[in-house]
Amino acid sequence: MSELSRRQFLRWGLPAGLGLAGTAVAASGTKAAAPTPPGMAHPNPTEYVGTRPAPVERQAPGVLDPMQILTAFDSGKVTRPAAGGVQREYTLTAFDREIEVARGVKFPAWTFNGSVPGPTIRCTEGDRLVIHFRNEGAHPHTIHLHGIHPANADGVLEIVPPGGTYDYRLTAEPFGVFLYHCHVMPLKKHIHKGLYGAFIVDPKTPRPPANELVMVMNGFDTDLDGENEFYAVNGIANYFAEHPIPLQVGEPVRVYLVNMLEFDLINSFHLHGNVFKLFRTGTSLTHSEVTDTVMLCQGERCILEFTYTHPGRFMFHAHQSEFAELGWMGMFDVRPRTQRA
Amino acid sequence: MSPHDETLPATDLGRTAWRPGAWFLVLLPVILLAGMVALFLVKGEVLVGKSPVPPDALLKIEFERLLFRPGEIVATVRNTGPDAVTIAQVAVNDALWQYAVSPGPTLARMQQARITIPYPWETGDPVEVKVITGNGLAFKKKVDIAAETPRPSLKALGAFALLGIYVGVIPVYLGFLWFPFLKRVRERWFHFFLSLTAGLLIFLGVDALKEALEAAGKVPGAFKGVGIILIGVSVGLLGLMAVGQRTMGRAKTGTPGSERLALAYLIAAGIGLHNLGEGLAIGAAYALGNVALGTFLIVGFTIHNTTEGFGVVAPVARDRVRLGHLLAMGLLAGGPTVLGTWIGGFTYSALWSILFLALGAGAIFQVVVELLKLMVRDAREAAGSLANFLGLILGLGIMYLTGLLVQL
After folding, report:
1. CATH class as words, domain B55-143
2. What pTM does this model have?
């Protein structure tokens, strides 16, 4: 076999090397655009990651923990227009943030205002609502509200790209417990990643005073196998089992309960040591039944009203035991009635 | 004298090897390599570009063992991923559970941890332990039939020893009982039986290799089970070859009878090494909860080992052998079963199992070589006769049939 001379090596090797290098440069420049399926106005998300730098993870020191989410109602910035009535303005910003979903376990979530669930929007029936939505995430998002509103405030066809904004304008009707979530395809992913929150519309005549708590039931599939590894209320598994919610004997309690659990068909709420009046969807001021366990499908919600007559620790949890054992478990710490002078 | 005959004079050789300049030549490539590795670790991304795969996605934990104690499960896990990993949550049968992890929840690369979970497991029920890492990945290990892991105690020690004797030692001596029969057969039949022995041993060696490969498949990839097999087979082969050269070389200078005796001892040693692996399998079967399989194993191994005893005694069947020699050979061949049962029952480790099986396989192959060499010397042209060929096939067939009983 004749030895390869230096001249021969340069003759064949140089063009070959340049050819390889050129192909590599050319390949990195082109991106195939995936065809858009009918009804899905949102193109292949990887396009965005390539053409826009991913947003820097926002430090969110003001982000609420599950206990704070219980009672944090966002009533918006109130103005009274000349035409009369009340206008409320809310600002919801979608951005990506890593959150803790169980002790020691982190999850790369897509959030509204940094928390999962997002802020609880609260208003009264008949209020004019303006929701300023700003998308600082790496993917396109929308805000789809449940309730009665015009089509351009529905949050399905007006896809907001990363960096974009949109204002949702509607009149709050009817009264009840509603919710909002992102409605971009793939739907399972955009919901499951954490883009949801409660939306409460109070009746014009307010409900009787009570200790009001918001509970959004959810779950997390941390290894992306299509099954939830953790179940939670207000975002962290077993949080209220480790931090019981303080209540008082004789104190009326009203729970606004929303089910945003993805991948499992139904969820439930079971209360120990008591029964509650159940107002399905909260759209009536008359309760539909009295029970201690209520079953909810994804997107269903209700109001529970109860009063404890005995002190002590009482559990509340999903009555699907497998959910309870994987984090959907909490405790009420009912304290004896405080003596009032 | 051709130019290729030139060699350095002895004194020059001595000085050249130890001059400091020579050391530098040896170390230079190592230093340069270290430099290249360091450079890549620091600045490698410039060369290769950022990896599109997020490194978090490649983190991995593998289970090495699940131990069952009354009211408690102890899981031994190892970090076999490319980076440090944190154990954040543990679930048993899909329920998040309390646990303690030592030395700590964060494992460096290749570090091992012990997770102790107080859990009311039931004998006979399946148990699945799931470990969830700090970035949400879940790793599971399932035991189909939970059973208490035997603890090293005098009673357990004794029980395993008895098991080893019953399965390993006694059957070998049973095989020896064919010795008087073999003494009476004609030369041709003697060679037939030697071929039979060769067939037995070949089957045994290949079977051991196959089990080692199976075990290698179950071991975390980072440990390269097949590499251990290679090392084990080589050590077994070469080790027994070295021993054989010593003993049979010495024996060659003596009578032909002493050469055959040395061969018998060699076969006993090879089979003994192999039985170490077999004992490991039996002990592990009990320890890992495969109690039902253990019964089949015992029956199968007992029959196997009887035929092995025949193999040990076959080469010396024509000679007068002192009883002491027979006793010693039996112990050499069967005794290691006891040792294997102890190791397998108390400290089963897939890695040791692979090594011992591979050692046994290598040793047996070497023994087969020695046996065939002896036959050729004895029978010369008649060594390749039809009868001997059939004997080999029969040996393979007997082992295959008795193997059917060993449903491993």
Report:
1. mainly beta
2. 0.73
